Amino acid sequence: MSETANRPVGRRTFVLGTAATASAAALAGPLAGSASAAGFGWSDDGSHYVVDTGASLVFKVSKTNGDLTSLVYKGTEYQGYGGKNSHIESGLGTSTVTIAQSGPTILVSVTYGTLRHYYAARSGENNAYLWTDKADDSVSATRYIVRVKAGMFLNDEPDSYTYTTSTVEASDVFAKSDGQTRSKHYSRLRVIDYEYIGWTTGSVGLYMVRSNHEKASGGPFYRSLLRHQSADGGGLYEILYYGENQTESQRFGLQGPYVIAFTDGGAPSSSLHHANITTAWADSLGISGYVPASGRGKVAGVGITGRDTAYPYTVGLANSAAQYWGSARSSDGYFSLPGVLPGTYTLTVYKGELAVYSGSVVVTAGGTTTLNTIAVPSSNDPSNASAIWRIGDWNGSPSGFKNADLMTYAHPSDVRAASWTGNVVIGSGGETSAFPCYLWKDVNSGIVVYFKLTAAQAAAAHTLRIGVTTAYANGRPQVVVNDTWTSAVPSPPAQPSTRSLTVGSYRGNNHTFTYSVPASAWLTDASAYNTLKIYVASGSGSTSYLSAGTSIDAIDLLI
User: Fold this and answer.
1) Do 119 and 140 sit in the same domain of this protein?
2) Which residues contact 348 (CB under 8 A, 6 or more apart)?
3) Is residue 289 assigned to a domain?
4) Beta strand pairing status for 233-241 and 142-149?
5) How open is the CA angle 481-439-242, to the nearest 5 degrees?
6) Domain residues for 504?
7) Residue 460 domain-assigned?
8) What is the pTM of this model?
9) Is 558 left (phi over 0), alpha (psi -120 to 50) or beta?
10) Same domain membership, residue 544 and residue 483
11) Each residue's pLDDT tens digit, 519-554
């Protein structure tokens, strides 16, 4: 990698690479050269395979279990804390570990039961390329963690708890003395939002550049822990399947490459980004489950009509074996999804994070499946329904609601959060920002919405809709109108069973609850305020912010 081309950022700051800034990070590609750099090669010290990239990086892999036991960059050791190494999960145990060199590439192969894991080095690069081939669930979850020594990169960001030890929830959410909260879960980002994560001192950068997540689960809007920093050290993660707040079954097969990249302090080369990386050099290495570019296909759509141009649109492909996604062009909805494994996929169009269209598409190796213009039916977007009033908008997320942005990187008890209680008056202005993004049975159940109806409106029955994005402990809304009409308790939709609202994620399964409110429930005085009380119904959960709860997408009363 051309280190001198990297533009350093402020000392001891963190870096989260986003798709939006990917073009700005374009640097000289690290894969262009094929000549071996001086010093490139490997050795065996008896316990480890020692790989020298011929640049400034030397790393060691345990011959016993495949752990990455050393990451020395420019003579400084970065790997390890608390006696722990970098590895899959918490370590694989006794494995078969081999090494081979093919020209300017060195490949370390790790076999643990049905799991295969690989480390590759390219001559003259300060990168380690990783693949993981998981055939079944004999390893409970799939993550790779790079453990970094304490003090190498300091920060006090939401995913850092270096400066606090006061536990707020479980053993992984903490509070500082000033009332701000910290947790490894508070990444702020969805998978679609970032290309890499890491830290920089201004002169040294260490990053995890993510893979395309074709074998991961949860889709483009999934949120998971990405990085942490504590008094013990730091961690960078590639999460391929994480059991928390998961909406899909686990996928199996080869995932990668994902890249551990060192720089002179700037961002990692954009040529390492999952959409740009080319690994023809790995085609003949014998990596289990590896499918070269020639064995993949492409899906292209000429456009999407029926869009609300105020929102970004994403097109996703998914089946039980793989998932992909990409952005639709704002001008006309054109999209292109390359590098897709052959198969039949469900194609989904998302307005924001809300699915508004679904179809089927077949992908063949070496071929391009071209789709005619996709027309999103008006009825598929609930925003198109005429409403007497509406709080929020139907976009599949709680964006715009009170505390919504903060909740992707803080605990609900954080001192920066506005009060979770408080009622809302329709027509007062700012109804959405006044309505809390989350409702809990033990915190703010029974919130009241005040609104007026004309005589004609009060003379008719109306449909009330409440859209949610996830729920904890089967929390779902039950409503009471004017203290005279009470809805039935709705059945709980399928939602993740783990924590969500307190660990930075509102992403579950979008669901709309509908309530048919009879005309007899309304006040006949057009000058009087009707009241809508929204309660959280559930017999599950514990107390406070771990009581049954739900995340709000939109609320409206239809004409």
Assistant:
1) yes
2) 315, 316, 317, 318, 355, 357, 358
3) no
4) antiparallel
5) 140
6) 382-558
7) yes
8) 0.93
9) beta
10) yes
11) 999 999 999 999 999 999 999 999 999 999 999 999
